[in-house]
Amino acid sequence: MSTKLETIGLAKTYRETPALLPTDLRVAAGEFLTLLGPSGSGKTTLLQMISGLVEPSAGQLLIDGRDATHEAPGKRGIGMVFQSYALFPHMTVWDNVAYGLRMRKLPRAELAPAVDAALAMVKMQSFAQRLPSELSGGQQQRIALARCFAFRPSIILLDEPLGALDKKLREHMQMEIRRLHQALGATFIYVTHDQDEALTLSDRICLMNQARIEQIGTPAQLYDRPATRFAADFLGHSNLLDGVVERMADGRVALRLGDGPGERLVLIGPSPDLPAAGAASLLVRPEAARLTSPEDGALAGTIRQVIFVGSDTRAVVSLGQGNEGTQGTDFTVRCPRELTPRVGERVGLAWDHSRATLLTR
Prior knowledge:
The chain is of the alpha+beta class. It is built from eight helices and 20 strands. The protein is globular.
């Protein structure tokens, strides 16, 4: 797959404070890439430099192989959708969508078909003569998308476009955006701090932290095999157990919790990818774990809380007695609905070792 956009050492500094450290990123043609991270991680700064709204302090931006680092925003062939819909309140829906095409001096004979096609794409043809004030939030967001799609840009940037919508409408619009991406075949770069949104929409996720890229990969790669503790903790619910790695005589690898002679977590091995020794954290997702009898589990604890979430039940197990180094640690397990754990019950914890991840940084 060909490269549509590439950044080489792209960076931005404000008064000696880095908003984005030198960043190398390659985005394939037709890809849906999500920039995910907490506030201040650099994701919006990166998006704004791609759009041309912010001038980089260093580095290079390539679009279709050409140097677009200092190119004017209007010459980059990029469409952008913001969280604020930015619709003209005095214009009809049709005129709002047509506005950008008129600014680009599209011939009159081509303008009407282009606007009608964009409205059809977001299923808003019947609202063409309404004003923005007569639309719901979701409908206004559709018009903002249509306005962007109307001139058929090859790259579309979306800066938290669903942030103002309620949960149900947000989930519906996620499916619509995914459908539109497939229909257009354009390259989408999407900014969000919502991990569920990133997992739902993306071909790949670029996880950002402290003005740099933390990890890039498919949603499954970041969720199942995070490279760092931050990645594990930020994406999805994580059970993280800290300890020291020990390689045993028979080739298996164990994680000793705490400094004393506490219980030992044995990881399936041998594996050349596992370290011989050193500090590490074991990541176990709640759905990879299960409740057992106390004597059969790798760890034991007491159920502190039971949370019903519809499709399943979450049991929050407080670790402590008999588990050196885990005092005060909670461990969450997703249980099938037919299982009815009780608060105060003493249980064991076991998990599928092939789905656990050892993190050394």
